[in-house]
Amino acid sequence: MKHIRIVLLLSLSLLWGCKPGRIQSGPAVRIAVGGQTQLVYLPLTLTERLGHFRDEGLEVTIEDFQGGAKALEALVGGSVDVVSGFYDHTIQMAAEGKPMQAFVSMLRYPGLVIAVSPATKRRIGGLRDLDGAVVGVSAPGSSTHLLVLHLLSKHGVSAEKAGIVGIGMAAGSVAAMERGTVDAAVMAEPAISQLETRAGKLKLLADLRMPEGVKEVYGVESYPASVLYAPEAWIEKNQLLAQRLARAVRRTLDWIGKHSGEEIARAMPESFAGGDKAMYAKVIEQSRPMYSTDGRISAEGAAVVAEVMSRLMPKIGAAKVDAGRTYRNDLVE
To answer: Is it true that 2-109+223-325 and 112-207 share their CATH fold?
Structure first.
């Protein structure tokens, strides 16, 4: 019997790829995220806080970056295994011959707005007035940058006529808007509410926190946004591990659907509230409808993302990317 127990322990340690003394911690996974404090990425942090990664036998390390483009760079560079970022990066990488797949969705709507700086000296009444303006995004090349390019194109403004600068999505975006460093910016909660608390109601040029705004901008009510994605080869090699990641996030999405904003806020790191717990809980409650209920990516939404990117970026259009190969729903099911 003793020999059998030793063999079993050694077999498990080989299966997890670690020493026998580390069996309980499970395989290590490094996840990059571009702006962890933003509510669009809340399910990732909440999954860790609720212990769902640990329950799946995973040892997850989350590394925070200024924006999604920086998180993608870390993935391509090999310093992380998975990215918690926006789905459109899988389309971009497919066009570059580096196939990646999203395997669990956290949002039904992008959860972003384009707001006018309360300190700008320009008269901005609509998106056309961004001609010649300075617009803040999380980072150049990020999904927020793509949103600005899409809206400028849709309203007849040349991308070259708007100065686009990276300001981050948390304290950096609030400071840039408050000081008038930018004339307008792409923002997400809770930064939107934090700025409004200090500067009053913001003028919004686009609001993608609810289906009506998403349909106005993209023509569909469900648009793939925050997901977990990884290189296709990594997923094939680590399919069970990816399935456990997806299952852990799916459990968190179920949990969000059954708990109030106040309960969710209590489970999050205190520092994410920016010193105003009541405001943070209120914003989470208002944002609950944007979270996915099943973790799936819709074929219609993925096709729209591919179409938008193909129109804005000639390289992607020339590559004729098959959106159906950039995501999979089988792991979350």
So the answer is: yes
Reported confidence tier of residue 25, pLDDT bands at 50, 70, 90: low
Tokens of 276: 């105003």
Mean pLDDT across 220-228: 92
Mean pLDDT across the chain, nearest whole number? Answer: 91
**225: which 2 tokens?**
């946004």
Q: Are 81 and 30 in contact (CB under 8 A)?
A: yes
Cα torsion angle, 80, 82, 83, 86, sign: positive
- Predicted confidence (pLDDT) per residue in 35-59, tens digit: 999 999 999 999 999 999 999 999 9
Q: What pTM did the predictor assign? A: 0.87
For domain 2-109+223-325, the CATH class is alpha beta
Closest CA to 185 of 198, 194, 175: 175
Tokens of 323: 């959106």
243-257: pLDDT as tens digits: 999 999 999 999 999
- Listed by start position, the domains of the chain span 2-109+223-325, 112-207
In whole angstroms, give the CA distance from residue 93 to residue 327. 12
* CA 142 to the chain's CA centroid: 10
What is the CB-side half-sphere exposure of residue 195 using CA atoms within 13 A? Answer: 31
Domain 112-207 class?
alpha beta
Comparing CA positions, the residue from 105, 242, 109, 129 lying closest to residue 184 is 129
H or E segment to which residue 207 belongs: strand 204-207
